[in-house]
Design a protein that fits this description.
Blueprint (H helix, E strand, L loop, with lengths): L7 H25 L4 H18 L7 E3 L4 H11 L2 H20 L11 H23 L20 H10 L3 H17 L2 H5 L8 H16 L39 H28 L8 H18 L4 E3 L1 H9 L6 H15 L2 H4 L4 H15 L2 H9 L2 H16 L2 H22 L2 E8 L2 E8 L2 E2 L4 H10 L5 E5 L5 E2 L1 H16 L3 E5 L1 H6 L28 E2 L1
Parallel strand pairs: 4-6, 5-7, 6-8, 8-9
Antiparallel strand pairs: 1-2, 3-4
Helix pairs in contact: 1-2, 1-12, 1-13, 1-15, 2-11, 2-13, 3-10, 4-10, 4-11, 5-6, 5-10, 5-15, 5-17, 5-18, 7-9, 7-15, 10-11, 10-12, 12-15, 16-17, 17-18, 19-20
């Protein structure tokens, strides 16, 4: 307990920021998923309190994920009812716990850094673009719909065009004032002010703009419509708990389709969680490493509890996690407190929170999105070279024009191709010189030469002009694939007809080190010994 409260002065204000970011997202994702609004809040509470307590991630925040919205929406329709769908959520949690014990979390370590960085930047751009309509008072598409093709039939860019044509002056003024407050609170002057250093800028923005929204109601030109405010369900107005909460119908366990949906959700939720774990660790100033298998188990328990209570499936989510990091969170207390605040908001403060303009929360997310995709990030990755920049850019474009998982898959595929090309180019280096006997070329093979280097080596050797003195130096190599050895052997034969003087060094040492014993004898090229090499004094081949 003492360790949990160690950084409470940083975690408390950060949790308030995460709460204000999470609140509209929980509601919006529930709406986008075709589920009851309370299901999104339940998932947010469970993701904060339950997953936050069990997770080994100090800064990651779990909750309902936009990436699962389409799957959830389709699954509810396929299974026929939300209470049957909740059984699939519980099963997804069970599958995730099993994946954790099977150590499937190691998958996270195989995503290239450029793809994870591209994912962060892509999500930042998506957040920024998706919040502009809400900042302008155009709220046709719900918060949490992060796909390019939106639920309202529009795309990200057509929605922007509509918002610019149909914006409302009241929400726009509130968004601009909120941005000004948020930016000022991050200046050195605000941070050095004694009474403001630990006050969250978003809390000040919310309080002031909630008051302003009420004042605008008296001015017809600036008044906000009910759709332009937060819309929390008010439990006190319900006649019974059954009117608000839905619980799983376990009689559906006899339906095979429920297991299929649960397994698909477990795989997608686990992959999205592992991606966000890598991204959050990358943003973490302290560079903590999250134990991924423990994270899968924590997420699995979270989904079991969320399904039992009538909530949506949860994953670790980068929007809330990055907001937590940017707000100065230091430990998992921040995630736990944000879940507690969500619980209090439903039980105690729904009427007050329903006075918060959506454009204020949009301003908070606009700043989060900008920080994830700063122009300086693009410049830094570009300076690292095209092999890094191309997968980075491909991941961003994939996420912006499709969704998170497809974008990451595109970036990963391009990163692999880029790696293969780069690996092929590093198979050897060439030293060229000229003397009275003509051109000399020394081909120095790399430490490891795989079959992926085969084409590049073959092309280069075939490009060497006739009557050249060539040395192939393998003395630093510890492994050469049999296909490459075959190319060298064939080149020795072809060099005779091209009047090429060839010296091959190091291959006999390779054989003596028994490196090639890793391969079956039938696939290993035997290197001729000096006694069996061509012995004619006129021969250009020297072994």
């Amino acid at each position: 307990m003492h360790s949990l409260l160690r950084y409470w002065k940083s975690d408390l204000p950060a949790s308030v920021v995460v709460f204000f970011v999470a609140l509209p997202l929980c509601l919006g994702i529930a709406l986008a998923s075709g589920a009851p609004l309370i299901a999104g809040i339940i998932a947010g509470i469970v993701g904060g309190v339950i997953v936050g307590a069990l997770s080994g991630s100090p800064l990651g925040v779990a909750g309902p994920a936009a990436g699962l919205a389409v799957i959830v929406f389709t699954a509810i329709r396929e299974l026929g009812s939300f209470d049957v769908f909740l059984v699939a959520v519980v099963l997804a949690g069970v599958f995730q716990v099993i994946l954790g014990y099977l150590r499937a979390g190691a998958i996270a370590y195989y995503f290239p850094s450029t793809v994870i960085t591209g994912m962060l930047a892509g999500i930042g751009i998506i957040i920024f673009l998706k919040q502009i309509p809400h900042a302008l008072g155009y709220d046709k598409d719900p918060e949490g719909d992060f796909s390019f093709s939106q639920l309202d039939g529009e795309t990200t860019f057509s929605e922007l065009a509509n918002a610019l044509d149909l914006f409302s002056p009241g929400p726009l003024l509130i968004a601009l004032l909120s941005l000004a407050i948020l930016v000022w609170f991050e200046t050195p002057k605000a941070k050095s002010t004694r009474y403001l250093a630990h006050v969250p800028g978003p809390l000040v923005a919310v309080l002031l703009t909630a008051l302003l929204g009420a004042l605008f109601g008296k001015v017809p030109q600036l008044a906000l419509s009910p759709e332009q405010f937060v819309s929390l369900p008010i439990l006190a107005n319900a006649e019974s708990l059954q009117d608000v909460f839905v619980f799983p119908n376990f009689s559906a366990l006899s339906q095979p389709e429920v297991y299929k949906v649960g397994f698909v959700m477990a795989l997608v939720a686990s992959l999205e969680t592992l991606l966000c774990v890598e991204a959050a660790d990358k943003l973490d100033p302290a560079k903590n490493i999250t134990p991924t298998n423990r994270e899968l188990k924590a997420q699995g328990v979270g989904n079991i509890v969320s399904g039992l209570l009538g909530g949506l499936p949860v994953t670790q989510v980068i929007v809330r996690s990055s907001a937590n990091i940017q707000a100065g969170g230091r430990s998992k207390l921040s995630a736990i407190l944000h879940g507690a605040f969500l619980l209090l908001s439903v039980l105690v403060l729904p009427k007050l929170l329903n006075r918060i303009p959506l454009s204020t929360l949009a301003a908070v997310l606009l700043l989060v999105g900008y920080k994830l995709a700063k122009p300086s990030l693009f410049k830094r990755i570009y300076r690292e070279g095209l092999p890094q920049f191309i997968p980075f850019l491909a991941t961003i474009c994939g996420i912006v024009f499709t969704d998170l998982l497809i974008g990451v898959a595109i970036g990963l595929a391009i990163a692999i191709v880029s790696l293969l090309i780069e690996n092929a180019q590093l198979a050897f280096r060439v030293e060229e010189s000229t003397d009275e006997q003509g051109m000399r070329i020394r081909v120095i093979l790399a430490q490891n030469v795989s079959f992926l280097n085969k084409a590049h080596i073959l092309r280069y050797l075939n490009s060497i002009p006739n009557r050249t003195q060539v040395e192939i130096d393998a003395r630093k190599s510890v492994y050469i694939h049999p296909d490459v050895l075959e190319i060298i052997e064939n080149y020795k034969i072809g060099a005779i007809g091209k009047d090429i003087t060839l010296v091959v060094q190091g291959l006999d040492e390779l054989e003596r080190r028994d490196i090639m014993s890793l391969h079956p004898p039938s696939s290993t090229l035997k290197i001729p010994s000096p006694s069996s090499s061509i012995s004619s004094s006129n021969s250009p081949i020297i072994q």
